[in-house]
């Protein structure tokens, strides 16, 4: 039984499709869910013991999707399986030896082609790295006053944006 409507599922899919991963590379992505967040919502814990001293502690979901996953999601929408469709997207098993991302965090995700047991290859998460936070620049009152007076201050960052840049930002 679906808990999501068709419109809700399509909104989730559209959000992921704004970050369609079409080739291997490094991508800065937002974590949309992790097991700790799910446990707080009274969902069962997901922990698996795997070989060589590794334990899969959680599964992290990202606001991204591959073309194959997008095709699967749209097929599920056509079948009326809205919850399953909305669950399609980029995810990764997090082990005790890797960074443990949490819901809402932005991380650097390495995606590469991985050979599956079936012999096929798929674009999958290969590595997750924590992103160091950036520091905002502080402006003095004198710098702000100089900007108001029309003067320039070397400590004030210059920002240039075209009309297209602004439209693109507003459409997100």
Describe this structure in words.
This protein is an alpha+beta fold and 172 residues long. It folds into two domains: 6-130, no CATH class; 141-170, no CATH class. It is built from six helices and six strands. It has helices at 6-17, 35-40, 67-78, 82-86, 141-148, 163-170; strands at residues 25-33, 48-49, 55-62, 91-95, 106-115, 121-130. Strands 1, 2, 3, 4, 5 and 6 form a six-stranded antiparallel beta sheet that branches. The longest helix has 12 residues, at 6-17.
Write the layout of secondary structure elements.
Blueprint: H1 6-17, E1 25-33, H2 35-40, E2 48-49, E3 55-62, H3 67-78, H4 82-86, E4 91-95, E5 106-115, E6 121-130, H5 141-148, H6 163-170
Antiparallel strand pairs: 1-3, 1-5, 2-3, 3-4, 5-6
Helix pairs in contact: 1-3
How much is the radius of gyration in Å? 21 Å
In total, how many beta strands? 6
- What order do the SSEs take from the amino end to the carboxyl end, as H and E? HEHEEHHEEEHH
What is the number of helices? 6
What structural class should be given to the helix and strand makeup? Answer: alpha+beta
> What overall geometry do the principal axes of the alpha carbons give?
extended
In short:
This protein has 172 residues and is an alpha+beta fold.
Q: Which descriptors would you attach to this protein?
A:
extended, 172 residues, alpha+beta
């Amino acid at each position: 039984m679906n808990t999501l409507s068709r419109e809700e599922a399509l909104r989730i899919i559209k959000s992921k499709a704004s970050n369609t991963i079409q080739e291997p590379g490094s991508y800065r992505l937002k974590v949309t869910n992790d097991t700790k967040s799910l446990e707080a919502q009274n969902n069962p814990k997901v922990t698996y013991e795997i070989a060589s001293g590794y334990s899969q502690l959680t599964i992290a979901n990202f606001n991204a999707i591959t073309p194959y996953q997008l095709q699967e999601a749209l097929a599920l929408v056509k079948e009326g399986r809205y919850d399953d469709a909305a669950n399609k997207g980029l995810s990764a098993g997090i082990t005790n030896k890797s960074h443990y991302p949490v819901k809402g965090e932005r991380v650097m995700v390495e995606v590469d082609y991985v050979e599956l047991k079936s012999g096929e290859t798929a674009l999958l998460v290969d590595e997750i790295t924590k992103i160091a936070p950036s520091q905002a620049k502080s402006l003095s009152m004198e710098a702000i006053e100089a900007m108001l007076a029309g003067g320039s201050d070397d400590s004030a960052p210059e920002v240039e944006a075209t009309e297209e840049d602004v439209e693109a930002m507003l459409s997100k």
